[in-house]
Amino acid sequence: MTERQFSVVICVYTEERWEDILAAVSSVRAQSLPALETLLVVDHNERLRARLTREFEEHAASGEVRVFANAGPRGLSAGRNTAIAVARGEFVAFLDDDAVAERDWLRHFAEGYDDPRVMAVGGRTLPAWASGRRPAWFPEEFDWIVGCTYRGLPPGRVEVRNVLGGNASFRTSAFDAAGGFATGIGRDGDKRPLGCEETELCIRLSTALPDAVLLIDDRSVIHHRVPPARERFGYFRTRAYAEGLSKALVARSVGSGKGLESERRYTSRVLPAGVARGVRDAVLGRAGGAGRAGAIVTGVAVAAGGYLLGTVRALRGGVTFSVAPIERAGSARAGEEDEAA
């Protein structure tokens, strides 16, 4: 395997995560396969952008860490698109601003690209619970609620329909073929816990490049912080409902066949098995068994409700999103934009 060059993208939006952001950047700088650059994209927060620019001033000249303002509408998707446009690496990797990557994260990503058909490689995201341990009622089948890898995904390095956005990489050329992340689907800070923008992108990529292969390699590990507010059942319900809304938008874009392909197996096989385990644990007197079974049933119900409402809104034209082509800058222009950001 030849040495591969990765641009690592970390999208940020609030100073409340200052220590998390610094930890994320440090984990990238400690990679066994060094990143070509780390791109910090600040989502319409001038104070945070200025503070990060000062913090990484000594690394800006070498291009090791570069700070940009989100050039598009507020939200995660536009922030990622801003980074893709200026990335200088052959590959772009995305890391959440409240996560840290293990030392061989990028190296395992790179190994997946030995096959030239591979357009994306994702990894495994483990929850770092603020309380120190998983809430007894919280089912592993719903770890996607907190942005983590969930029970039901196959182990090892396997082909998948889509990677998960907070721990993923793409060939930069994939965005030339398929365009960037759709705006109007992804997160906008903590205000709207929608998602699925990476699902929509991956399906669109597979349509644009029918021979494309997308992988998950569970050796590419990051640890994602789960704050106390997201350990609560209220957040669980809200996020599950929002997922249903998001899935309706994806289905509108790519059709329900592709848009719900993985979800059908998940709801017909993975979740019933999770309910059965919860009931069994409850019968055996194990803590949290009944709660986990109930949470799975509730999660399915509210997600289905969100999907139905999202479908009605989509049919009425009340919810829209857009996909724009990525106009990538050359390395010289990228450096100039960095200074101007």
Q: What's the average pLDDT?
A: 89
State the total count of DSSP E strands: 9
* Beginning-to-end CA distance, first to last residue: 35 Å
Report the principal-axis shape.
globular
Strand content of the residues, in percent?
A: 15-25%
Order of helices and strands: EHEHHEHEEHEEEHHEHHHHH
Detail the poorly predicted runs: 331-341
Helix content range? 40-55%
Question: Major β-sheet, in short?
Answer: 9 strands, mixed
Topology of this structure?
Blueprint: E1 6-12, H1 18-29, E2 37-42, H2 46-55, H3 57-60, E3 65-69, H4 76-86, E4 91-95, E5 99-101, H5 105-112, E6 118-129, E7 157-159, E8 167-171, H6 172-178, H7 197-208, E9 213-226, H8 233-254, H9 256-259, H10 261-283, H11 289-316, H12 331-340
Parallel strand pairs: 1-2, 1-4, 2-3, 6-9
Antiparallel strand pairs: 4-8, 5-9, 6-8, 7-9
Notes on the structure:
The protein is α/β, with parallel strands linked by helices and 341 residues long. The chain contains twelve helices and nine strands. Strands 1, 2, 3, 4, 5, 6, 7, 8 and 9 form a nine-stranded mixed beta sheet that branches. Helix 1 links the parallel strand 1 and strand 2. It is globular and about 60 Å long. The two termini are 35 Å apart. The C terminus is likely disordered.
